[in-house]
User: Which sequence fits this backbone?
């Protein structure tokens, strides 16, 4: 499939100071109308086509573990499609990420499609940065639903303000993380927020913000594209678990501890000084 990049992806989104404060205070922000419905519909067929083509999950839903039931996961689709590359490399999205993080420039960590099938299970409580060997918290994930996403479909649920809560940062996505973080977050009285997404809404969450998603009780898959950004000056930290060692090899190849991951897989997508 070929298509012309939608011009909206190159136009800036008007981000106000209130949104930036919410992100810093709460660890996430859901922004209305970051993309028009037409823009999302322009790219959804190609993203979905690549998910179907590249998906390696072959087990029936009932035979998978909790992680496998949570979603079909396909990473770095941008390497397989110029159309998806246009979407992932959007200056509009990258500029929002940089402004929320309060940095001059951001580079790509990787993209990731997360498709929760009809009947797909919960996504347990977790923090994304458990998987990332990075030296600071200047990381953010853009969560972009490719359809209107009511609560029954399993949108993200955030623990408000949990990006400053260090307990549980050593837990991968699992039944154990669900049990332990459900208990610990409740003990700390973190408000829990789950809201539907209109088509074109995009949420941005800090790498250490704890979040989960309910099962998909709808008849259609919950199709979501994500783009993970990091401060362009961030450096690689010493990996502390096998998942981080795997991520370093896969997403920042050849980068040593203490170096900036300026690899071909990690291009700068927005630079205020450029």
Assistant:
């Amino acid at each position: 499939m070929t298509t012309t990049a939608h011009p909206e992806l190159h136009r800036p989104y008007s981000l106000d100071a209130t949104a930036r404060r919410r992100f810093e205070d709460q660890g996430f922000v859901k922004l209305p109308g970051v993309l028009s419905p037409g823009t999302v519909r322009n790219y959804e067929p190609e993203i979905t086509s690549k998910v179907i083509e590249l998906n390696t999950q072959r087990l029936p839903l009932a035979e998978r573990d909790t992680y496998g039931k949570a979603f079909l996961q396909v990473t770095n689709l941008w390497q397989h499609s110029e159309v998806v590359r246009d979407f992932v490399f959007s200056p509009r999205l990258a500029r929002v990420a940089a402004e929320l993080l309060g940095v001059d420039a951001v580079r790509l960590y990787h993209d990731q499609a997360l498709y929760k099938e009809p009947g797909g299970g919960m996504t347990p409580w977790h923090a994304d940065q458990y998987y990332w060997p990075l030296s600071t918290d200047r990381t953010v994930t853009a969560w972009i639903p490719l359809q209107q996403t009511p609560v029954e479909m399993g949108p993200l649920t955030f623990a408000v303000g949990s990006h400053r809560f260090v307990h549980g940062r050593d837990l991968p996505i699992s039944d154990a993380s669900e049990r332990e973080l459900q208990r610990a977050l409740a003990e700390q009285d973190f408000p829990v927020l789950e809201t539907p997404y209109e088509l074109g809404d995009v949420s941005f969450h800090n790498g250490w913000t704890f979040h989960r998603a309910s099962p998909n009780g709808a008849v259609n898959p919950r199709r979501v594209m994500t783009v993970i950004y990091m401060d362009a000056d961030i450096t690689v930290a010493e990996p502390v678990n096998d998942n981080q060692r795997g991520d370093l090899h896969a997403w920042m190849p050849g980068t040593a501890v203490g170096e900036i991951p300026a690899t071909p897989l990690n291009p700068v997508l927005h630079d205020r000084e450029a």
